[in-house]
Amino acid sequence: xxxxxxxxxxxxxxxxxxxxxxxxxxxxxxxxxxxxxxxxxxxxxxxxxxxxxxxxxxxxxxxxxxxxxxxxxxxxxxxxxxxxxxxxxxxxxxxxxxxxxxxxxxxxxxxxxxxxxxxxxxxxxxxxxxxxxxxxxxxxxxxxxxxxxxxxxx
Length: 154
Hints:
This protein is an all-alpha fold. It has helices at about 5-30, 35-55, 55-65, 70-90, 90-95, 100-120, 125-130, 135-150.
């Protein structure tokens, strides 16, 4: 099985899990107390939007006619799964005390990976191997992550 098929199967699996996370709370709304109905509906809406976010990388690839690294896309899908499906839908934010810290650490690593991918894309491979020291690369990735986080972009 090649990499593209594995990515497609992972996207389908995450979408099906997301549909389950949307449908199950909607089925509980009729039997839930009135004060919990709005919470169930809001969680279902968040998960439905999370399913749409799963399809953002293939959409960007199609519109921009670029090929995103499959490892980066997989890390993005896992972040959406961890934050939306597990964190919001299953309530890991309230059940696990360090869940929010884990997601913030994971999102920093993900945004650093995006920064590294941008640098490797913008700098030609011949120049990168000869003139770009690893410390400079680490500083640039850190600054991109830090500035993006402070602006609320990444």
